[in-house]
Structures are given as structure tokens and as C-alpha cells.
Amino acid sequence: MARFYTASLLLFVLALPAQVCKGQNCTSRVSGYVADGHNNPVTGAFVTLLHTSLGAATDTGGYFSISNVCMGADTLLCQSIGHKALFVPVNVVGDASVRITFAQNANELQEVVVNGIKQQDLRTVTTAELTGIALLQVRGASLGDALKDMPGLNAIQTGPSLSKPVIHGLHSNRVLLINDGVRQEGQQWGSEHAPEIDPFIANKITIVKGAASVRYGSDAIGGVILLSPDDLPTKPGISGDVYLVGATNGQMGAFSGLLQGAFDKKLKGLSWRIQGTLKEAGNFHTPHYYLLNTGLREGDFSANLCYKVKRFDFDLYYSQYNTEVGIYLGAESTSIKDIDSSFAHHSLPSYFKYDITRSYQTVYHDLLRAKATYDLNEKGKLELTAGRQNDVRKEYDVDVPYGITSVNEYTIPQLTFQLITHTVDLIYTQHAKNGFSGSMGITGATSGDIQGGVRYLLPNFRDYNGGAFAIERYTLKKFTFEAGLRYDYRWLRVYERNTNTQAIYYETYQYNNASGTVGSTYHYNEHLSASLNVGTAWRAPSINEMYINGIHFSNGSYEVGDSALKSERSINTGLSVNYTSRKLRATIDAYYNSISHYIFEYPTLKFRALASGTFPEFDFTQANVVIHGIDAQVQYDFLPQLTFQSKTTIVRGYNQTIQNWLIYMPEDRFVNGVELHLPKIAKMDQPYISVSNLSVLKQIRVPPNSDFVPPPNGYSIFNFNAGFIIPVKQNTLNVNFAVNNFTNVAYRDYLNNFRYYVDDLGINYILRLKYSF
């Protein structure tokens, strides 16, 4: 280990006298990922550009980044203790990303695999990534839970199993999900409608914070979450990963496996991958009691086939998501007296069991995607993507539907939604030349919803969308300038039934508007850079915001929409400053988002008494609002083995229409911790231990008397993580052990809809295993 740190220090010193290439464009950035032969990240590898001696070491996730790189041909030298040095040719034509893989056997020098150079669509918009060890540490969690501790992100929850991501205070239809290049279309018609996606499919999760509508569509006012699988292998052979996750809270177990390979000889250029996930949990528990009927079951599957020949790639992808989630029974009441009892924190008696009874919901979602890519050599590439998605959601109330007497019909749901969506995108990506690069494209989608069951919450509808965009950037010395423009059109027809005559009639809506972005990034030196972006985006009201009128069983609420709602318009300004040195890495993001006609749901402080129960009422309305805040992340290495990490998320929302605070904004969150990297212990390689504290302040910035219950108190919980890697012959076993809320604190989070009724989760011991072969 001493030799390792000595060699790393020597390489760093040798890389210091990097010369500036005068008269050239030296503002590019080369970043990448270094892996061993088992696809595990290599920590502390040093990557150097030989022509300039610029270099960087990989972090604990195997990632590196080199700034102020001159355009042109160069060679990367990658060195790491236990591996033979690799020389990798690279042609820098703008910001580039490469993947370097060492041979499985340290005594053999095999051909290095460098996956294609990739460029980010919007470079001046703030982004964050979840990869490597950090991604392993959240395996088994839902997508919302996996991301909520990242700066600028939160999760809006409905109990322990249902959550969706929140970016800068915005969620649901304002945050888009991109699943392997396709916009995920689901039924985000309630806060408990979680994303219909298996996080195990992603090898990297990228978060675009701020308006990204120019590239991804008019709804992306809050941001975009991109789930990216690893590139398919190109070398003949078979490899894979197996994940096992076990947790004590809910006695949850998850299994996920991936198998992939590439063919040789006559089938050269053809590669494949299959993946699947099984997950089950029973009743979860708070520090003092179990939560009745909160179990879940999940079964997912995906397959990928890719054929590459010369300059043409054809990629076929299919994924299927299936889940059944129990809903806490204490959220439904038969009278105002029962509601008052629930609000007074009188939980229902319960115990542990895996059985799920009414009330619960089931979700089925499948995606079929075909993508064809043609490389135009120096001119760029052309990409055509077509997709079909089918999303079926069924909701079962605690009571059997009225009139059902047969036991065989006990499984009939109260509500059934089916959303079928077709999408097509044609994108041209321009390679960097003379400092210019960019992309342009046209997109189209059509979707329709059909309802079933014995009740109707929303009307049937047909939706058509079309858009066209162009993004161009120019790099000049230390500056990168970027501008983009997009136009979108939406046609919506809603079918309703006259309650008196039962005749069907329809209403038609048409929306169209433009989105734009302009920004710049300045690289002061290899340590300091700053980005400024101003973007404007818009969003048409969604079907639930306009037409919902009924009981949302999963929430235990009665919701009322407004068909007269107008489109939202956002003007978002973001400033990001990044500093990186040998010991210190810091990022500070500030944003100011002004949204006119902002659509939100507010509690009326009234109750709806129906035959099926009594429910608190929530109505949709609009207001002119301002949402602004700061995200900060700092890492400091006190010692080569000891790192301090701090993350801060502060959001402020103000309702200008009523001249008061905006309801349902995230609380201030602070995550602080230390991570200790230990020398190799017996066969345990790269062992680490970390302890962190999450402190959340009480949300005091709410309008007075605006909710059924006041915001809960702030809380402070501690989490523990430890892990290591064990070689198993030619393969590896990655082990992670975690304890969440290890002091077993009872608390309630303001963004959890079930804070009205019950506490959040208590202590949870989690074991995660990843076997790579």
C-alpha cells in the first residue's frame, strides 16, 4: 500500500509542469472511467495525456477528469498498481468521455477497450451522477429513495414503498425520466404514482438539474433523470453481474442478475444482454410499531440486442416492470372522528407479515425500443429511435366494489388505467469542428388512456405531441458558449359522458410554445470553472390536474381538478462553480426559477363524506411563484485515506399571488460524514468505512393555517456504511453493509404524504452483494 501511494504521488508530481499549448484550442475536457477485467472501478489509477503531461487520478468510483486539454490527437497513459500500463490513442474533438478496461490477468497485456466518445447534450446546465460504489450503496431502494440524498434532490413519498424524485422543489410531470434513451411515459396522476422503472437496469444515473426542455421536451421544467445501462460488450465471451440485497426492515429481499456477451466469426458485431429483478418485502416498521399492509412484490425483466457493422448500429431493447404494493390501511377513514384519530397519531395495531390485502395497487409497464445509428464520419451521426410503451395501473380499495358477491371476483379493482404511448425521435449530432458542435432533431409522440374498473377517476383521452429543436455550442479558448431553441405542439382531446343522457362528448385543447436556453462555461484553470445558464420552458396542464374528481385511494384523499388551467411558463437562471484540487473538491449551484401559472394541489381544509368513507379534500389551482435555492457539495481529504463529505440542499418557494410562502416545498437538508479507506486486510481489497449524519430542519415557511396538520419537527439521523472487494478466482465479490437510522429515531418527513398518520421508518440493517464474472 505504501508503494501504491508513493507511485501515485510521484506520478502527480511529474504531471504538475503541464505546458499550455499556445495558439491552440485548449479548453476541452477528457473524462472517463477505469475498470478492471471484472468491470469493477479502479481507484487511484493515474491517467496522463503524454503530449501535455496533463493528468488526473481516478476517484473511489473509478472516474477521472482532465481539464484544459488541447484539441487533436494524443495518447492516454493509464497506470495502476497491479496492472500493466496501458497506452490508449484518443482524438480530442471537444469534451470527450472514454472507458478504459484493464486485462483480467495483471500478467497479461490485452487490448484495451475504449468505448465511443460521448458528449453531453446540454453542457452549461448543472448535472450530477450516481455511479460506482455510490450506486451500489443504494441498490434495492426505489428510484426516489436512491437519489434523495444527492444535493438538490429530495423525494416525495407515500409511505415506505412509493416515492418519486424531486429536483429543486419540482416533481411528477415536471421531471422527466429517460430510460436507455427513451422518454418514460407513465401515469404520474398522483404523488403516489411512483416511476414504473427498475433502477437495477442502470449502470449510471445522471441528473440534469434545471430546465432541460430544449433537448428533452416541454415538460422538463424541473429537470431530467437519465438511466443509462453499460455499453454492450464488443469482445467475444460471456460476462455478468449478480446482486443480492437483504434488509431487516420489512424483511426485504432483492435479487437482480445480468448476463451479456458478444459473438465472433460469422456473427461478429452482434452482442446481447438479458437482465431481471425480483424483490419482496413485508410490513415495514417505525421505531415503535409496524405499518399495516405495507408489503410489496416486484418482478422485472429486460433484454437488449445490438448489431454493429461498419458505420451502422441497430439496437433493439425491451423492458418489463411488474409490481404490487400494499397501502397502509390507516390512511382511510369512515368518519371525521376516525380522521381526527389518525391525525392524532393513533396508528392501527399491526405485526409483521408478507401478505398484501386490499388496499393495494398493481402496475405493469413494458417498453419496446428500436434504435438505428449511422456514423457520418467527421460530419457527425444520425440516430432514429422509435418506442412503444404500455402502462397498466389497477387500484384496489379496502372495500370490495359495491355489488360484488362472488369470491372469485374479489380481485376486481375500483380503478383501472391503461396508457399506451408511441414515440419517434430523429436526432443529428454534429461532431466538433473549428470549435463548433451541437445537435438538432425532431420528436413526436401519441398516447391514449382507457379506464376500466367500477369507478372512473379520469376521463379517457387522446394526446398528440410534436417538437423540433436545435442546440449549438462554440468553444473559444477558455470559454464554451451554448444556445438552443425548441418548439412544441400538443393536441389533447378529452372524452366525457353526460351524467343525464349518458351521451359521450369531447373537449379539445391545443397548446404550442417555444423553449430556449443560453449559457456559457468558463474554465479559469485546471482547478476552477464556472457555468451560467438561463433557460425558459413551458408545460401544458396534465390530465389529472384538469379533470380528476374523486377518491385517490392510495393517498386516502379526495381530489378535484380544474379544466380551465393554463400552461406554465418558467424562466430559470442557474450558476454553478466547481473547484478541484488534490485535496479539495467543491461544487456550489445556485438557481432562481420564476414560474407563471404554476399548478399545484392545495388542502381545502374540508372533508368529503361518501359511502366509502370520509376523505380530506385537495383542489388544483394556479399561482405565480418563485422557487430558488442553493446546492453545495464539498469533499476534503484530511489524509489520503480519510475524506470528509458535506452536502447541502436549500430550497425556498414563494407564492407571489398570495404574497406568502409556497406550500409543499422541501425542508433544508444537510448531510455530513467521514469515509475511511483502509489498507488491504487479508483477502479484503479496498475496504472502507463511513458514518454520516442527515439533519433536516422543520419546514417553517408555509402559509398559516394552510394544511390539515402542521409540518412535523425537524430530525437528525445517523447512517453507517462499510464495504470491501474480495477476489474469487478470476471474478470479484463486492460487499456492502449499511445501517440506516442506526439510533432508531422516530421522525416524520414533510414530503411524506403519510406524515399525517404515521412515523417514518426505524432502524434498517442492509447487506448488499455484487458478484461480477
Structural summary, described in words:
With 773 residues, the chain is mainly β. 5% of the residues lie in helices and 56% in strands. It is built from six helices and 40 strands. The strands form five sheets. It has a 22-stranded antiparallel β-barrel. The longest helix has 14 residues. The radius of gyration is 26 Å and the shape is globular. It starts with a helix and ends with a strand.
Oligomer: single chain
Radius of gyration: 26 Å
How much beta, percentage-wise?
Answer: over 45%
Q: Mean pLDDT, rounded to whole units? A: 86
Unreliable sequence segments: 1-25, 105-118
How many strands? 40
Task: Please estimate the helix content.
Answer: under 10%
Distance between the termini: 26 Å
Largest sheet: 22 strands, antiparallel, barrel
Spell out the blueprint of helices and strands.
Blueprint: H1 2-15, E1 28-35, E2 46-49, E3 55-57, E4 63-69, E5 72-80, E6 83-92, E7 96-101, E8 126-130, H2 132-136, H3 143-147, E9 153-158, E10 162-167, E11 170-171, E12 175-179, E13 182-183, E14 204-209, H4 213-216, E15 223-228, E16 237-247, E17 252-262, E18 270-281, E19 296-309, E20 312-326, H5 336-343, E21 360-375, E22 381-396, E23 415-433, E24 436-453, E25 460-476, E26 479-497, E27 504-523, E28 528-539, H6 543-547, E29 549-552, E30 557-560, E31 568-580, E32 584-610, E33 613-639, E34 642-655, E35 660-661, E36 669-677, E37 685-696, E38 715-728, E39 731-740, E40 764-772
Parallel strand pairs: 1-7, 12-15, 30-33
Antiparallel strand pairs: 1-4, 2-3, 2-5, 5-6, 8-14, 9-10, 10-11, 12-13, 14-15, 16-17, 16-40, 17-18, 18-19, 19-20, 20-21, 21-22, 22-23, 23-24, 24-25, 25-26, 26-27, 27-28, 28-31, 29-30, 31-32, 32-33, 33-34, 34-35, 34-36, 36-37, 37-38, 38-39, 39-40
